[in-house]
Sequence to fold (253 residues):
Amino acid sequence: MATNGRLAGRVCVVTGASGGIGAATVAVFQREGATVVGVDLDADAPGDLALVADVADEDQVQDTFQRVRDSYGHIDVLFNNAGISPNDDASVLDTALEAWERVQRVNLRSVFLCCKHGIPHLLDNEGPMSGSVINTASFVAVMGAATSQISYTASKGGVLALTRELGVEFARRGVRVNALCPGPVDTPLLRELFAKDPEKAARRLVHVPMGRFARAEEIANAALFLASDESSFVTASTFLVDGGLSAAYTTPL
Ligand SMILES: NC(=O)c1ccc[n+]([C@@H]2O[C@H](COP(=O)([O-])OP(=O)(O)OC[C@H]3O[C@@H](n4cnc5c(N)ncnc54)[C@H](O)[C@@H]3O)[C@@H](O)[C@H]2O)c1
Fold:
């Protein structure tokens, strides 16, 4: 186990590890000395150990954390990051109940399960700082979009409220719990949108004061801060990393 770095000696579990933000975070956590377990539906997740699991399935979640504990003896950081945003989740007028429930299952129920079965391992650690939980919400948890994805937005609002409550509940037991709320991130999905419909992409971009989308590494760096002891007084927070998006009324030309 590495002895150097901001996460030296820590065992971190990253869900959605094969995705844009997940993979970038695995790399940053490893660079900072952590042992990282990548969890994903995808079999080739990055990390020191890759585990295949559906994070919305209770048995699989319980088993995943037990396997990490058995492999490394302790768990220090949970980055509950897996999520989906399918095209058939749109306006409330057009979204089928099945799509609503599919998105709630992956985005909200999974975070409940990963906290329910992950936090007990963090509480087993000795010392005043037992662990850090980072749940990925989104800027849409705090502001509305005319280009609605109704179930996605509601799921992220749920993640934010759940996280705040857990942060308060565990504050005196050494476990910090924060909601990481990224603004739009430059992912293959967004690049496709730019290529297909530059006008629609430009419409989104105009709301970001910085005039660009985030890079996955910039979200990973925020996760690093929340995972490390540098954020020792930060809990139950709505940690917005959005290029100023949620603060803007008008943006620079
Ligand atoms: N990309 C953005 O602009 C953006 C903005 C705000 C918030 N977010 C959130 O950040 C998180 C990561 O997003 P991303 O852009 O890296 O997405 P991504 O699609 O690149 O990665 C998501 C990963 O989650 C995995 N996954 C999906 N369902 C799963 C399940 N049931 N069990 C296990 N793994 C599962 C996928 O296989 C994929 O590897 C998501 O929660 C997303 O909602 C993204």
